Amino acid sequence: MPSLPDPHAIAVIILTLFAFYLFSREIVTLETTALIVLVALSVGFQLFPYERNGITVTPADFYLGFGHEALVTICALMILGRGLVVTGALEPVARWFSRLASSWPQTSMLVLLVFCAAASGVVNDTPIVVLMMPILVSVALRTKTSPAKSLLSMNYSVLIGGMSTAIGTSTNLLVVAIAADLGMRHLGIFDFTPMAALAAVGGLLYVWLVLPRLLPDRTSLMADTSPRIFSAVLHVKEDGFANGKTLSEILEKTDNRMKLDRVERGEQMTLARLPTAKLNAGDRLFVSDTPENLKEFETLLGATLHNVDELEEPIGDEHPLTASGQQLAEVVVTEASMLHQTTLRRTRFSDFYNVIILALHRSNLREVVKMSDIGDVFLRVGDVLLVQGSEEAIKNLRENAGLLVLGKTTDLPHTSKAPIALAIMAVAVTAAALKLVPISISALFGVLAMLLTRCLDWKDVGSSLSTKVVMLVVSSLALGAALTFTGGTDYIAQVFLVAAKDLSPEMLLGLLMLLMALLTNFVSNNAAAAIGTPIAMSIAQNLGVSPEPFVLAIMFGANFCYATPMAYQTNLMVMSAGGYQFSDFVKAGVPLTLIMLTIYTFLLPRFFPL
Fold first, then answer.
1. Helix (H, G, I), strand (E, B) or coil at 389
2. How far apart are CA 33 and CA 192, in angstroms?
3. Angle at the Cα of 267 (from 261 to 270), degrees rounded to 5?
4. Are residues 424 and 450 in contact, defined by beta-carbon separation less than 8 angstroms?
5. What is the pLDDT of residues 392-428, one digit of tens each?
6. What one-character DSSP code corresponds to residue 379?
7. What are the DSSP E strand ranges found in 459-609?
8. Which CA distances in Å does 605 have to 192, 240, 260, 537, 539?
9. DSSP letters spanning 197-252
10. Helices 69-87 and 439-452 meet at what angle, rounded to 10?
C-alpha cells in the first residue's frame, strides 16, 4: 500500500467523505452541504496554511468556481433551454406525437424515445422531461392506460441521450472543463457522440421493449378523472333547522366543516357573511364539498339540496349532483415553481388561482395527504398536487404559475418566437461545434440574443437558474482543487491501482464506471464527477496511458443515475407523477446500468485507445 499523504490531504479526504455522506442522506439541503464544504475549506486553509511545490493555497482559491468557465456555460445553457420551453419551440414535435400515439402506440413510443435522446444531447434534460410529461399523461388518460408504463422509459431515454455530447448535461461540461484545466485536450462537443450513439441503441431498445414489462401498473392521483368537489345550493325550508338561526349556529351544527361561499335572499340581495346574520325560509346557501358531505349538511340543516344551475328541482335520482365545467389536473412542483420550499397556506395558492386542492402525493409517503392536512406541508421538487377547477383556472395555472400541469388536455405553449429561439440555439451549438468560439462564449451570445429578440425576459432568466446546481458545481470544484493541491488525488489513485493490480486497463475502465455509478445514485453526480476526474487523470498518469478514456469513464459512470429516485431531479419528477415506488427504480434501473456499463466498457478503448 502507498504511504499515507500529509495531514492536509487526509483532512480533505475526510471532508470529501463527510460531504458525500451529507449528499446521500439529505440531513440538510444540498445547497447547505455545498456551503458547509466551502466554509470548511476556507476556514481550514486559513487557520492551517499549506504550501506544496512552492505554491501556497489560499481560501480565495476555493472561490474561483463561481467564475469558472464550466459554471458560466452550464448557466447559459440552462437559460437557452428555458427559452425553448417558454417559446414552445419543441411543441410541434410533442403535438405530433400526441396524435400518432392514438393509432400507433408502440411506434410512436419509439419515435418519442429517439427524439428525447437526441434532443437531450443539446438541451438540458429537465426542460425535455417537463415538455413530455403532460403529453404522456394525457395520452395515458385518453387511452385508459397507466402513465407508469411510459414516463420512466421517457426519463431514461433523456438520461441516455444526455451522455452523447459535451454539453448534454452539466456533469459532462464539468468533467470536460476540469480535465482541460489539468492539462488534457479540451474535448469538442461531438467528439464522443458516435460512440455514445452506438451505446444508446442498446439502452433505448431496453427502455422501449423490456422496461414496460418489468413495471406493474401504478395508480396515479388522476386514475379517476371525475370531479371530487361539487358546488351546490341549500334552500332553507320553513320547517328546517336553519330557519331563524344565525350563520354561526348553522356552521356550529356542521362542526364548522361546511364551506359557505355566499348567501342569497330573494332575487337580487346577497347577505353579508356575518356570524350574527339570521337566515329566513327561502334563503339560498351556496356551498362546495364532496357529495357525501353535501347530503349530510342537507340532513343536518333540514334544507333541500339543488344544483347551482337547477334551482327548481332538488337533487335526487332524476336530477343527480353535477359539476359542469370542472376539471381535475395534477400539478408537479418543480424547482422553478412558486411552491418550491414553501406551503400552500403561505402562498394562498388556492385563493390566488381559484382552484381546490384535493390531495398531495409525495414519493416517500405511504399514503396520499388529504385536503385537511395539506396547507402546512412544506413542498419540494417532485411533489404532486391534485387540483380541481374550471377550465379557465387550469389554463391559468399552465400559463402563469410556473408549474408543470398534467391532465387530459395538452395545451402547450407555442409563440411566434419559437423559430427564433430554435435558430439561436442552433447557431450557438454550431459555432461551438465548428470551434469558431468556445461553447461558453457562444452560449452567452445565445442568451443575449434571446433577450434582445424577447424570446426571454429577465424573469425567465432568473427562474431557469438553479441555486442547487451553482452551489454544487462551485463546492465540487473546490473539493477537487483541494484534493489535487494536497496530493489527495494521487494517493487515492495509487490505492485504486494497488487494489486492482491484476486487472487490465480495459477492465479498470469498467471498474471506474461501476464505482461512479454506485456513487452517483446516492450522492450528487456533479460532486462525484468533479472528485473523480482528477483521480482518473492521476490513474492514467500512473499507468502511462492516455487520460481520455479514463476521464470519459468518470463522465459516463456519473451519468448512470438510473437505479434510485434521488439520483437525478427528473427521476423525482416522474416518480410522483407515475406513482412509482423506490423498488421500481431498482428493478428497472439496475439492468439498464449493467447494459450501459457493459457497452461502454467494450466501446471506450476502441474509440479512445489507451
1. strand
2. 33
3. 35
4. yes
5. 887 777 766 566 777 655 455 556 788 898 899 889 8
6. P
7. none
8. 12, 85, 71, 16, 15
9. HHHHHHHHHIIIIIHHHHSPP---TTSS-S-S-EEEEEEPPTTSTTTT-BHHHHHH
10. 40
Residue 320 in 3-state DSSP?
coil
Nearest residue to 597 (alpha-carbon basis) of 224, 152, 206 = 206
Q: Return the exposure string of 46-68: e unless at least 16 CB atoms fall within 10 Å of the residue's CB, then b.
A: eeeebeeeeeebebebbeebeeb
Residue 269, SS3 per DSSP: strand
Q: CB of 551 within 8 A of CB of 610?
A: no
Taking the C-alpha atoms of residue 201 and residue 178, their distance in angstroms, rounded to an integer, is 29
CB 424 within 8 A of CB 455: yes
User: pLDDT value at position 219?
Assistant: 60
Cα–Cα distances in angstroms (integers) from residue 162 to residues 47, 168, 311, 567, in the given order:
42, 4, 58, 15
Give pLDDT, residue 366.
Answer: 46
All residue ranges of the chain with pLDDT < 70 are 1, 26, 90-91, 94-95, 98, 101-102, 141-143, 218-229, 308-313, 315-326, 336, 362-373, 399-403, 407-415, 576
CA distance 59 to 64: 10
pLDDT value at residue 14: 92
Q: How far apart are CA 546 and CA 421, in angstroms?
A: 39
